[in-house]
Design goal:
The structure holds 2 protein chains of 2 kinds. Chain A has 10 helices and 13 strands. Chain A has helices spanning 44-52, 72-77, 93-103, 111-117, 133-144, 163-178, 214-221, 236-243, 262-271, 286-293, and strands at 6-15, 18-28, 33-37, 59-64, 78-81, 151-155, 182-187, 199-204, 207-212, 225-231, 246-247, 252-257, 276-282. In chain A, the strands form 3 sheets. Chain A has a 6-stranded mixed beta sheet with strand order 5-6-7-3-8-9, with helices on both faces. Chain A has a 4-stranded antiparallel beta sheet with strand order 11-12-10-13, with helices on one face. A 3-stranded antiparallel beta sheet of chain A has the order 2-1-4. In chain A, helix 6 (163-178) links the parallel strand 6 and strand 7. By secondary structure, chain B is mainly alpha-helical. Chain B has one domain (2-271). In chain B, helix 11 (217-227) runs antiparallel to helix 14 (249-271). The radius of gyration of chain B is 20 Å and the shape is globular. The chains are: A alpha/beta, B mainly alpha. Chain A binds chain B through residues 49, 52, 54-55, 72, 75-76, 78-80, 82-88, 90-91, 95-96, 99-100, 102-105, 143, 153, and chain B through 3-4, 7-8, 10-11, 14-15, 18-19, 85-87, 89-96, 273-274.
């Protein structure tokens, strides 16, 4: 599609003998939010640096707003929030933001409203040295929102933030997306991305192993549902003998069953009557889903 | 382009002031220059030159060591440190070229150096002139000293940026900068001295040695200040090598060096992957 802001085609990056990225293809349309997941070292930051034009690919193609990354046009269209931003501690928030405003070619009067929007107006004239981690991240978001970017690349935006700051951060990101910015959020854990992302891409050892909506990922993974039964005193052996599954400790049995077998299994459990004291049903969580796609549970 | 260079220069100047770099550099220059001027005031009568001339000669020797040192200390962390903090990648995500970043930082740092040199040498020179008199010649020598010190500083600022881009880490850049300083202002001269002793009055001492002196920016600085003023040459005892060279050699070397070093720094920065 021609109106995609970020287009990645068969992208590859090799550092010496190490394949940092292999044959990665994905695209991002205006207003779309993509979560890019993967372990540390899976290639997320490499992909972002390629999109910024800081490094050159060894294979494939990548375009930002129709231009080659690193060109004036591509950089003008892109906002970036590095992982754990370290601004200069001797500057005030307003001074640091003013530098980015000038580099972006915007008038400096946008500084005030922008700092207000990220909730930093009260600390604008304090040294960044005195800022908390959350405040520094807000300043990072403020510079990323400068000049209505068409593409925002956010590297671990929520790392190290408390739940309240994280919620505020995701609200700001949602605001960006509503204004038409294509947002890419890189993170090392699915649970970090509580924001309502539209699609999820999972990188594992430099390869794209999944690229779908959350519902799509769930359906495709067909991961088992976990049933945990607590047996009455002394009945655990009999429960295991009649239902199968695995003994967890003295009194509990765990059964994994496919989604379509769930009701059958529940029926059989109900038939055991007084042998069963309690029952927990756990659908596959986000974390388990992520582990499934990144290949961690196939050992 | 100018707008972006000035934006970076402005922020760097602000940082230099907040870090008390401007204050430190100026205090160091002022202290050494004043101390040398008054400690070195003894030979005035015997040489028959005014106190300012003697003072300029001593301060020339001081500047050979201090200008490269201050410049390297300002410059070594400029790129490596910022890359380590992650700030360089962020700046480079804006529509600003690497050349503009380098120019902005260079402008600010050169401003700091120029201020420190002018304040330090100017104050010491002024004090010497008041205490022991000054002629047109010695005032010219003082102006030349300040101007050429700034040029010498510019050379090592640019070399410092090159080191900063090549080293990859802040600590590595510091080590490389220290090595560079030692090589350029101490070991190079020692090596030449050894070669001169070995050659005696041979072809090397007469033909090659002066040119090798002029090729090193620190020695070119010394030669220029010495050759241009008879009084200073007399007071510093470096007239021999200066006389063997055409008058333009040292100034040309000191003017070409900053440009070459800046080109080197730009090339090194271009290869850096932040």
């Amino acid at each position: 599609m021609t109106d995609d802001i970020l287009v990645v085609e068969n992208l590859a990056k090799r550092h010496g003998a190490v394949e940092a990225l292999t044959d990665v293809s994905l695209s991002l349309a205006p207003g779309q939010r993509l979560a890019l997941l993967g372990h540390n070292g899976a290639g997320k930051t490499t992909l972002i640096k390629l999109a910024l034009g800081l490094i050159a690919p060894t294979g494939g193609r990548i375009t930002v707003a129709g231009a080659r990354p690193g060109t004036h046009a591509a950089r003008a269209a892109t906002a970036y929030l590095p992982e754990s931003v370290a601004f200069h501690p001797a500057l005030t928030g307003r001074e640091q933001l003013a530098l980015f405003v000038r580099l972006a070619g915007e008038p400096t009067r946008v500084c005030g409203p922008l700092l207000e929007r990220v909730g930093l107006a009260h600390a604008a004239d304090r040294r960044i040295r005195t800022y908390s981690k959350g405040m520094r991240q807000r300043l990072g978001i403020a510079q990323a929102m400068l000049g209505r970017p068409r593409l925002a690349l956010l590297d671990e935006p929520a790392s190290g933030l408390d739940p309240v700051s994280r919620h505020d951060l995701y609200a700001l990101i949602d605001g960006l997306a509503r204004e038409g910015t294509a947002v890419l959020i890189a993170s090392h854990a699915l649970t970090e991305v509580e924001a309502r992302t539209d699609r999820i891409a999972i990188l594992s050892a430099g390869r794209l192993v999944a690229h779908d909506t959350l519902a799509g990922l769930r359906a495709r993974a067909a991961m088992p549902i976990r049933l945990r039964l607590t047996a009455r005193d002394g009945a655990a052996d009999e429960v295991q003998a009649r239902l199968g599954g695995e003994r967890i400790n003295g009194a509990a049995v765990e059964i994994l069953c496919a989604p379509q077998e769930k009701m059958d299994t529940l029926g059989r459990i109900a038939a055991l009557g007084p042998l069963v004291a309690d029952l927990d049903v756990t659908p596959p969580g986000l974390e388990a889903l992520y582990r499934h796609y990144s290949g961690e549970d196939r050992t | 382009m100018i707008r972006r260079i000035l934006a970076i220069a402005g922020i760097e100047a602000c940082i230099a002031m907040r870090n008390r770099w401007v204050l430190t550099a100026t205090a160091i220059m002022l202290m050494f220059a004043l101390a040398l001027t008054f400690a070195g005031s003894a030979p005035t009568g015997s040489l028959g030159v005014d106190l300012l001339t003697v003072s300029v000669a001593s301060m020339t020797t001081l500047s050979v060591y201090l200008a490269p040192l201050l410049a390297l200390m300002l410059a070594f962390d400029a790129l490596a440190g910022e890359a380590e903090r992650g700030g360089l990648a962020l700046i480079l995500s804006y529509p600003v070229s690497r050349g503009e970043i380098l120019a902005g930082k260079g402008l600010a740092h050169l401003g700091v150096l120029a201020f420190a040199m002018t304040a330090g040498f100017g104050a010491a020179g002024g004090a010497a002139a008041m205490a022991g008199g000054a002629g047109n010649d010695s005032l010219m020598a003082l102006a030349r000293l300040i101007g050429s010190s700034i040029l010498l500083g510019a050379v090592f600022l640019a070399l410092g940026y090159a080191v900063s881009a090549l080293a990859g880490s802040s600590a590595g850049a510091a080590a490389m900068a220290a090595g560079l300083w030692l090589l350029a202002v101490v070991l190079y001269d020692l090596g030449l001295l050894g070669a001169v002793v070995w050659s005696g009055d041979g072809a090397f001492t007469r033909e090659v040695f002066p040119w090798m002196l002029a090729a090193n920016p620190a020695d070119a600085f010394r030669l220029w200040n010495v050759a241009a003023s008879e009084g200073v040459a007399l007071a510093s005892g470096m007239g021999g090598a200066a006389a063997a060279l055409p008058g333009w050699a040292a100034p040309i070397s000191l003017i070409l060096w900053p440009l070459a070093a800046l080109g080197l720094a730009r090339a090194a920065f271009g290869r850096m992957e932040p």
